[in-house]
Write a structure and sequence with these properties.
disordered C terminus, binds zinc ion, alpha/beta, Rossmann fold
Length: 201
């Protein structure tokens, strides 16, 4: 039994490569080295790393909401080269926003029985938040290193972090060094509460 599991959500060419169908922007690319070091840290410790990968059918209904992206088997649905999964990593396809949709993630996690599930990836307000909600519904404790998740705009990002903290009891932590201007690693002390108030009024 491992005490923690890392989920890496949608670090795919279509979201993180400049030529991708739904490129999330240069800001989102800043999470790549942070996730790389988290993956290495978990792998060294022998803790499971699970990559969740959008893998749509060519005429998926989701394309009524978003332009076609991450079609199963295409370049866009491949994990970016910087985060190429190692031998021990697991790759699980998903077909909707939540990491639990259309796969066996639920059984996989039940078999591992982690005390904490760490989340990383894109977008904070869509796939990360929906996955966090479905983890909470299954009584898992969620941990979110705030520098390891990204959105296309900071308002959505901040709102999603605040909602996941308040509604799902997610623990927000910082993992980057002082150069990031967030202070020491540990409990997150950002302006999330203020931002939530702002967004809700
Ligand atoms: Zn999708």
């Amino acid at each position: 039994m491992s005490s923690r599991v890392l989920l890496v959500i949608d670090l795919l060419n279509d979201f993180l490569d400049r030529k991708g169908a739904l490129y999330c922007g240069a800001g989102a690319r800043k999470i790549i080295p942070v996730i790389r070091s988290l993956v290495d840290d978990f792998t060294r410790a022998g803790d499971p790393v699970i990559y969740l990968r959008d893998a749509h059918a060519p005429r998926d209904k989701e394309f009524e909401l978003f332009p076609p992206h991450a079609v199963k088997g295409s370049w866009g649905s491949e994990i970016i080269p910087e985060l190429e999964p190692g031998e021990t990593a697991l790759v699980v396809d998903k077909t909707r926003f939540s990491g639990f949709f259309g796969n066996n993630l639920s059984e996989l996690l039940a078999g591992i029985g982690p005390e904490e599930v760490w989340l990383s990836g894109v977008l904070t307000s869509i796939c990360v938040m929906d996955t966090a909600g479905d983890l909470r519904n299954r009584d898992y404790s969620v941990v979110i290193p705030v520098e390891a998740v990204a959105d296309i705009d900071s308002r959505s990002h901040q709102f999603a972090l605040a909602r996941m903290e308040k509604v799902y009891g997610a623990r927000l932590i910082t993992v980057a060094g002082p150069a990031e201007g967030r202070g020491k690693a540990g409990a997150h002390k950002g302006s999330v509460d203020e931002t939530l108030g702002e967004v809700l009024t």
